[in-house]
Amino acid sequence: MSRTDTPAHAEPRRGRHSSSRGGRRKAAGREPGTRRCLVLACGVDDTTGIDLDSGALVRLRIGWSEAETEADLSPFDVIHAAWADDPERDDLAQPEAVTVAGLPERVGTLRGRRVRRVLRHHVAPDEPDLLGFPGTSAPYWEFRGMRPSVALVVPRRGPILFRRHEDGTVWARFSAARSDNWLPVEDRRAMAALWASRRDRLAAKDLATALGFRPHYVLVAISRPRDGHCYKTVISILPRS
To answer: Which residues contact 23 (CB under 8 A, 6 or more apart)?
Structure first.
């Protein structure tokens, strides 16, 4: 995997630079021992991104307080984060997981050609089964730490966002490689866009209008175990840049 751009060229983020949930206030320079990471998705369990120093996909586990249930970070934010002394690299279902010491520091954003250069090196290969196995879930005991738990997909068709009438959950449908995927969505922005539209289904131009951008990537990840199984979920729908 090629070494990617570092956020030395990152554009400063206008407006609020930090919050109690978004990390420490921007410092004058980079603290020793920290990593530069490009955020792709934020959730309750972790923050998924790219370690710009190594070029690796990472799932950052951050110890937010009880009042800070998840990060106030957005896709394409650039953060500085320090790995913990005990980085918890023993999760066989999520080999990219790493524990962060303290809170990350938001230092800017990447846009345009810079972010496109970073992302193009991480697009998932054209394989029969997304993330290495068929279907939407697998027993936790089947994972051996030998396959990725995150895939950045450029769909051949889709995505289509829709609400399931059975339980009111939001799902996405898209074609990747040689598979047609129907997966639950955990992207808060995408879910909010569907609810705000007051429609049960969004696709093509309607979806782009609701999101405020044309979808280009779908970020799929393996969840933590629930009742002994890990599930494929859509954790972010992203623009090209």
So the answer is: 71, 73, 79, 103, 104, 105, 106
Please indicate, yes or no, whether residues 233 and 128 belong to a single structural domain of this protein. Answer: yes
The number of distinct structural domains making up the chain is: 2
Residue 20: the pLDDT is 38
Beta carbons of 219 and 150 less than 8 angstroms apart: yes
Does one domain contain both 104 and 162?
A: no
Alpha-carbon distance of 141 to 233, in angstroms, equals 19
Asked whether 49 and 62 are in contact (CB, 8 A), the reply is: no
> Which pLDDT belongs to residue 5?
42
Q: Which long-range contacts (CB under 8 A, 24 or more apart) does 99-104 make?
A: 99/60, 99/61, 99/63, 100/60, 100/61, 100/62, 100/63, 102/24, 102/63, 103/23, 103/24, 103/62, 103/64, 104/23, 104/24, 104/37, 104/47, 104/60, 104/62, 104/71, 104/73, 104/79, 104/80
Q: Residue 178: its pLDDT value, please?
A: 75
Q: Sheet holding 170-176: strands in order across?
A: 179-184, 170-176, 157-163, 201-202
Per DSSP, 98 falls in state: E
Q: How far apart, in whole angstroms, are the C-alpha atoms of residue 137 and residue 132?
A: 11
Question: Domain range holding 230?
Answer: 123-238
Read off the pLDDT of residues 141-193 as tens digits, 9 standing for 90 and up: 999 988 999 999 999 999 999 999 999 999 999 998 778 999 999 999 999 99
